[in-house]
Amino acid sequence: MPDYGLPLEFGTFITPTAAPPERAVDLAVLSEQLGFDLVTFQDHPYQPAFLDTWTLLTWTAARTTTIKLAANVHNLPLRPPAVLSRSAASLDLLSGGRFELGLGAGGFWDAIEAMGGRRLEPGQAVDALDEAIDIIRSIWNVGERTPLRLDGEYYSLNGAKRGPAPAHDIPIIIGALKPRMLRLVGRKGDGWLPSFAYIGIDGLRSGNATIDAAAEAAGRDPREIRRLLNVGGAFTPQRIDRFQGPPESWIDDLSTLALDDGVATFILASDDPGVLEVFATEVIPGVRERVDAERVARGTATGRVRSAAALAARRDGIDYDALPASLAATAVEPGDSGYSRVRNNYLRGGAPGLVLRPRSVDEVREALAFARTQDVPLGVRSGGHGISGRSTNDGGIVLDVAALNTLEVLEPTSRLVRVGPGARWVDVAKFLAPHGWALSSGDYGGVGVGGLATAGGVGWFAREHGLTIDHLRAVELVTATGDLVRASADENTELFWGMRGAGSEFGIATAFEFQVDETGDVGFAQLSFAPDDVAALLEGYGRIVEESPRDLTASLILHPGSSGRPAGATLLAVVDSDDADTVIARLEPLAELAPLVGQSVRLMPYVEVMAEFMQPGGHQGRGEPHAHSGLVEHITADFAAAAADLLDSGATHFFQFRAVGGAVSDVPADATAYAGRSAAFSLTALAATSATLDREWARLRPWLTGAYLSFETGRDDDIRSLVWPSEHLERLRALKAEWDPDGVFRDNLGVVAR
Predict the structure, then answer these.
(1) In 304-377, beta strands by DSSP E
(2) Each residue's pLDDT tens digit, 692-709
(3) HSE-CB of 612 using CA atoms within 13 angstroms
(4) Alpha-carbon span 172 to 189, nearest angstrom
(5) Which of 46, 75, 441, 495 is deepest in the core (most CB within 10 A)?
(6) Which helix (H) or strand (E) holds 695?
(7) Domain boundary pick from 240, 269, 298
């Protein structure tokens, strides 16, 4: 049997003994310390001398950080698949993507019946496992929104909800010996796990042949199926038999099984710490070295294997085979099961042909170099919130820097911190909170740092501390040519100017340095109104906010009415004070704007404000929503009336008025590429279609003095001139000619008209 070319892995097989209960976990921790890739436990829930394997796996996940975990294997008749799938996804999420699902059709039927399980004949057990695998994968498939319904022979579902989605594509590894089970492995399994003591060399070879034939009949590449093997034995001075001898003989035995029989994962069954150490320090390195050398000599193809279905889903215009191995390891294609987690952003549905997820600056450079050779759109993503929609596309490449999410204090006395572009703002807030610090950074904690920190950053401290970019002291970026450049007030100063308000035009930010502010608890208010007069509400809101001290920053959101009811309004506000009287004093004038139908005022840490509206799961936007942005200096009576008319027209389902001004206006308009410093309010309107919104929005144009790049989906010259007035555009175009003359970063609004 040929070598399938999969990377070698080594694991341990530990008895889940309950006496003493900590022994199994300690051996798992030792396995991680010794460098094993995987730790597994038996799953015999009817054994009174054993710990429950699910509980053990969860406890072990909490005690370890890198090693993968699995049962060897789960007893399906006692674990309903719909519950099992959610348990697996939950543990995978909690462990950071370290769980693998080992499944067996069941055994020890007398014990299973005694615990309430259903006795099945061998053929029935295989069919039940077949059904269960489909259920498990369907629960994980959150990209499909329809509820699950199944009236099967062994399992029934009546409108079951999908999810949660696991953190990674959990492989389903099947423990199997008989031909029907082996054919099921070939059709649906991601791995095959027998024990050498039961199957022997002949059984291993015939099992591989059966699996390969079934895989090919199902249109699969046999290399998609990892071959795992439980092995046990002893280290002795002289070789006695297979897996009985000195480490050198073990190296011979395991290398032969890898090279001639396709085994890619060897799992050592032992509870002896000394045996684990000898295996890890002497056997594993020898096997890796020998197999690697022989694969090179034989010219064996190695690396990740995608299914035939995944290959068929690839999009035109992308040379997938040319992708560097370092990027292929984490890349996601349309046919991959994890695609639904990365295709969309917060509001917008996408269908990119390839999502690259670099883990380092060097990989960002590699990813950009690859993307430059492909004649498809390129989108750059940090968090995926992206109201403008530019962090996804259709058929192109998305370069996702989420893995570049490190946080570091550089200078405590000056409150200088270093932040990776892939961090989310809630993560930044959590990191800063123990120091008594905060950074104004949008109003939603799920937003990624990279996009916001290169566009502006209108946050809950805007009136008091300015925009996020006003706290930026340096930025490192990979330019269109792949160079790593640092920009600050002392280095590449003109580029630093452009990165603060138009950064998406010049490169991919890989690190930011911010000077943050001190803060304690803040007042956070949510007030709901049923206004009789929307225009009067808007005018009063604008006046009160502008007259208030700068420690108040507020946002008013209007929703159109329905069924004859008036429009609703929600006011959100932060008061940077931990004094209840001060908070109430700031809010009282706002609370009197219109009839209140709901209110909540709390003193809370800023990090809790950032987490307030976090949504569970990944971004699952749909369709192609449209958004327009505008900046106004004041909410006058005439403007308020025009805005109320827009709401009445039904052109928007979400109309927001965010307070800026204050410290934002203290910065000269020409100090950064963000130009709209004179505005007291930033407006955003969202709609499902563009035609009506475009028409109604045009009526507000006489009052608009600018626009905010991140909340604008339009791309015409009129919008471009709103975002960047002529003096700014002239400087930005000169920068574009210097740093990106070929227009690599062309899928944004664009300082150069297309």
Answers:
(1) 354-356
(2) 999 999 999 999 999 998
(3) 20
(4) 6
(5) 441
(6) helix 691-698
(7) 298
pLDDT at 614: 79
Mind listing the pLDDT tens digit for each residue in 208-257? 999 999 999 999 999 999 999 999 999 999 999 999 999 999 999 999 99
Q: Is the pLDDT of residue 415 over 80?
A: yes
Helix (H) or strand (E) holding 112: helix 109-114
DSSP string of 223-278? GGSEEEEEE--EE-SS--BTTEE-HHHHHHHHHHHHHHH-EEEEEEE---HHHHHH
In angstroms, the CA 140 to CA 162 distance is 6
Q: Which residues contact 345 (CB under 8 A, 6 or more apart)?
A: 381, 384, 385, 386, 389, 391, 392, 619, 621
Cis ω for the linkage preceding 164 (within 30 of 0)? yes
| Structural domain that includes position 702 | 522-720
445-473: per-residue pLDDT in tens?
999 999 999 999 999 999 999 999 999 99
Helix, strand, coil tally for the chain in percent (to 5): 40, 20, 40
The contacts of residue 304 (CB under 8 Å, 6+ apart) are 328, 329
Bridge partners of 528, per DSSP, are 570, 598
Per-residue confidence band for 329, with pLDDT thresholds at 50, 70 and 90 = confident
Continuous segment of H or E residues that includes residue 89: helix 81-94
Q: How many residues does the chain have?
A: 754
In a 3-state reduction of DSSP, which class is residue 550?
coil
CA distance 425 to 644: 33
Q: What is the CATH number of the domain that holds 31?
A: 3.20.20.30
What span, in angstroms and rounded, lies between the C-alpha atoms of 417 and 568? 40
Q: How far is CA 125 from CA 78, 184, 530, 627, in A?
A: 12, 11, 60, 54
User: Which of 254, 272, 298 finishes a domain?
Assistant: 298
Residue 585 lies in a domain: yes
CA 306 from centre of chain: 21
The pLDDT score that the predictor gives to residue 180 is 95
* Distinct helix (H) and strand (E) counts, the chain: 25, 30
pLDDT digits (tens, 9 = 90+) for 355-386: 999 999 999 999 999 999 999 999 999 977 77
How many other C-beta atoms can be found within 10 angstroms of the C-beta atom of residue 556? 25
Contacts of 628 (CB under 8 A, 6+ apart): 684, 685, 693, 694, 697, 707, 711, 712, 713, 714
Residue 500 counted as domain residue: no
Whether the per-residue pLDDT at 62 is higher than 70: the answer is: yes
Integer angstrom CA distances of residue 458 from 631, 676, 677: 12, 12, 12
Examine the pLDDT at 118 and tell me if it is beyond 80: no
CATH assignment at residue 589: 3.40.462.20
Question: Apex CA 463: angle with CA 457 and CA 468, to 5°?
Answer: 20
Residue 494 lies inside a defined structural domain of this protein: no
Residue tagged 């796996």 (tokens): 57
Q: Is 601 exposed, middle or buried (0-12, 13-18, 19+ CB in 10 A)?
A: middle
Query: What interhelical angle do 284-298 and 247-261 show, nearest 10?
Result: 40
Question: And the tokens for 214?
Answer: 């079934």
Contacts of 115 (CB under 8 A, 6+ apart): 45, 46, 78
Query: In a 3-state reduction of DSSP, which class is residue 627?
Result: strand
Q: 520 by DSSP, 3-state: which?
A: coil
Q: Which residues pair with 76 in a beta bridge?
A: none
3-class secondary structure, 464: helix
pLDDT tops 80 at residue 113 = no
pTM of the complete model:
0.85
Residue 101 lies in a domain: yes
- Number of domains composing the chain: 2
